[in-house]
Specification:
2 domains, alpha/beta, 12 helices, 9-stranded mixed beta sheet, binds ligand LLP, Lyase, Ornithine Decarboxylase, Chain A, domain 1, TIM Barrel, about 425 residues, single chain, 8-stranded parallel β-barrel, about 25% strand
């Protein structure tokens, strides 16, 4: 993959030497190339414009949610997918237009639903029977209405490169199409005058490299829409095909570009709609990774280096599964470089280890690097999605800082956590005399 390097052989991120950023903000550090986020967003939006179809591209904020990130999403005229009170709160803090927010979740709490209703968000993606009851009663109590989509499981499971067609999909999300459960939910929603059903939603998986899964799902949803039109006179205005568009983490990955995904989706929706004489619905998608993923880089400082002759060399960095749990959790692969040795020849294979007390805390199992020294700066690429978002305080490590870089400028957008903040929720405990039996 192409990396930007200056004459001194230093890695540049959005035109700024990685070393300068590490010196100013410390490591581990998440750095986002904001222009890249913008390009990713524009690529999706532009394709829909080119095809002159009505569409909404909602950023799935679970990939990386922060006030600054959502401000950029707003500037790029994206819509927003939130899945919790916390994500909705962040969106409100970012002054994201509420009518462009929709909410997901397989177990939305009363409080989350009330918050969504009170703030008049655009739409709720209804996931289960309990939620239909809960939401209806909130709306009744507040004497208002809410637009909803019905989330269905179309029986297509994407495993990155291939798809499994399952009769009844085993998923905690949504209503099963094949068993008639989705139609039962549809009927329940139709009986609730305060729920305004706009259409259907499905999400078939994540980090998908082929378009066939999306087109298969589109056909399944159209089939249901056509059945419900015939049986119940329902016309879907919206068809939400979820997220899941795969990105390149390492040179082994050969993803489609964003235009190709959007192109394949639009083509299929157009074909289905003309074949069934179904009025063309508005197409909604919810990319998370494909917007934020390749815009993020994590910078670490190299510490101990342990060589086990004939076995491997562990190169430990000052972060690990606390700032990026994906390698430990999913065996996710990444590429890395030594940021100040970009012009030096590759000399050795290293295993990049984190600093958690956990043998599985590895960031990269095999990576070729120039000869590494203590205090070298290591840059790991494409960490922008589900990296900081899944950060945790295991071993009471502090969450790293996040910096946005654009147009030769950089600014801190999430402060580094400090020890005081880490213990801010802790209360002391004193042993009390128990009641005598
Ligand atoms: N819409 C729905 C309903 C979703 O469940 C998801 C992701 C998305 C959209 C966005 O998917 P994306 O475009 O980012 O693939 N933590 C995992 C990924 C979990 C994705 C969960 N749902 C990872 O690090 O790979």
């Amino acid at each position: 993959m192409n990396r930007e390097v200056n004459e001194q052989g230093e890695l540049l991120i959005a035109g700024i030497p990685a070393k300068e950023l590490a010196e100013q903000y410390g490591t581990p550090l998440y750095v986002y190339d904001v222009e890249r986020i913008r390009q990713n967003a524009r690529a999706f939006i532009q394709t829909f414009k080119d095809y002159e179809v009505r569409a909404q591209v909602a950023y799935a904020s679970k990939a990386f949610s922060s006030i600054a990130m959502l401000q950029v999403a707003k500037q790029e005229e994206l819509s927003l997918d939130v899945v919790s009170e916390g994500e909705l709160y962040t969106a409100l803090e970012a002054e994201f237009p509420v009518e462009k927010i929709h909410m997901h979740g397989n177990n939305k709490s009363l409080k989350e639903l009330e918050m969504a209703v009170d703030h008049k968000i655009g739409c709720i993606v209804v996931d289960n029977f309990y939620e239909i009851e809960l939401l209806s009663s909130i709306l009744e109590q507040k004497q208002t209405t809410m637009e909803v989509l019905l989330r269905v499981t179309p029986g297509i499971e994407a495993h990155t490169h291939d798809y499994i067609l399952t009769g009844q999909e085993d998923s905690k999300f949504g209503f099963d199409l094949s068993s008639g459960q989705a139609e039962e939910a549809f009927l329940k929603i139709s009986q609730q005058k305060r729920l305004k059903l706009k259409g259907l939603h499905c999400h078939i998986g994540s980090q998908i490299f082929e378009t066939s899964g999306f087109t298969m799902a589109t056909r399944k949803l159209f089939q249901a829409m056509q059945d419900w039109r015939k049986r119940h006179g329902f016309l879907a205005e919206v068809l939400n095909l979820g997220g899941g568009f795969g990105i390149q983490y390492t040179s082994e990955d050969d993803p489609l570009d964003l235009n190709q995904y959007a192109h394949a989706l639009i083509k299929e929706v157009k074909e289905q709609s003309s074949m069934l004489s179904y009025p063309m619905p508005e197409i909604w998608i919810e990319p998370g990774r494909a917007i934020a993923g390749d815009a993020g880089v994590t910078l670490y400082t190299v510490g101990s280096i342990k060589n086990i002759p004939g076995v491997r060399t562990y190169l430990s960095v000052d972060g690990g599964m606390t700032d990026n749990i994906r390698p430990a959790l999913y065996q996710a692969k990444y590429e890395a470089v030594l940021a100040s040795k970009m012009n030096q020849p590759m000399e050795q294979e290293y295993t990049i280890a984190g600093k958690c007390c956990e043998s599985g805390d590895m960031l990269i199992w095999e990576v070729e690097l120039p000869k590494a020294d203590h205090k070298d700066l290591l840059a790991m690429f494409s960490t922008g999605a589900y990296g900081y978002a899944m950060a945790n305080n295991y071993n009471r490590f502090q969450k790293s800082a996040v910096v946005f870089a654009e147009g030769g400028e950089h600014s801190l957008v999430v402060r580094r956590e400090d020890y005081r903040e880490m213990t801010r929720l802790d209360l002391s405990y004193e042993k009390r005399e128990g009641k005598q039996a």
